[in-house]
């Protein structure tokens, strides 16, 4: 019950967050709302929350919203956040691109501009230092599925669904397929792309698209608990761990992967955080 109360009050009353979780000095250091399409809050405890807030239109990723998302991610980096929760309001996580950005009269140059911006948002998620946790409460479709797949972790409600439906409407989800195929086996990704039907949370878990499924009413609590865990770990080594992970999985050979990992491992053992732990461990063993 205390977990649920903390999660429900932490974004409204930072002092309640501090007292409930035993974190001192918590205060909201930055908050902005731009036309209420995206809200962004950054707390001094190291947790940021970015929320898509256009539920009436199913939280589309218009060009304007993509700019707001990109700015919010950079703000979280500048605020030295340790974890970022990427959530949305309403029953749909995100319906993906806004088709108004792809009307014929806008032309290919504009199409390329919007798609490049979308790519920048999705790649920035993995480039920034904070661990980005998607909180998926409902349907994540097309670019919305892409956005969730790009996050470092995905916590899903039991009501969550995932879909890349381009083939159902006379097209194909080319760019969402990139992020999807990086998270699930290519065979599964291609099946989702050619059939365009949605998969439920359980199937997404089996496919490796999500990390955990929780009861719908417990989603906010569960995501907050994950973010708090991240915020209590070594900031330096968590940051370097994220960099090392994405660098090595993109390497072309097993030896190259180990070379990359070893470089980061050496830096870790030389870090103050790790040396403090080693000293404490050795001294405890001596006693």
Tell me what you see in this structure.
52% of the residues lie in helices and 19% in strands. Helix 1 (2-9) packs antiparallel against helix 2 (14-21) and helix 4 runs parallel beside helix 5 (143-150). The protein has 287 residues and is α/β, with parallel strands linked by helices. It has helices at residues 2-9, 14-21, 63-78, 107-127, 143-150, 174-183, 186-195, 201-207, 219-231, 235-249, 254-270, 272-286; strands spanning 28-34, 38-43, 47-52, 60-61, 83-88, 92-94, 96-97, 131-136, 139-141, 153-157, 161-163, 199-200, 212-214. The protein starts with a helix and ends with a helix.
Helical residue percent?
40-55%
Which percent band covers the strand fraction? 15-25%
Intertermini distance: 40 Å
For the CA atoms, what is the radius of gyration?
20 Å
The rough form would be described as globular
**Number of E-state strands:** 13
Average pLDDT, rounded to a whole number, is: 88
Name the strands of the widest sheet in spatial order.
1-2-3-5-8-10-13
Give the quaternary arrangement of the chains. Answer: single chain
Order of helices and strands: HHEEEEHEEEHEEHEEHHEHEHHHH
Low-confidence stretches: 1-30
Largest sheet: 7 strands, mixed
Question: Helical stretch count?
Answer: 12
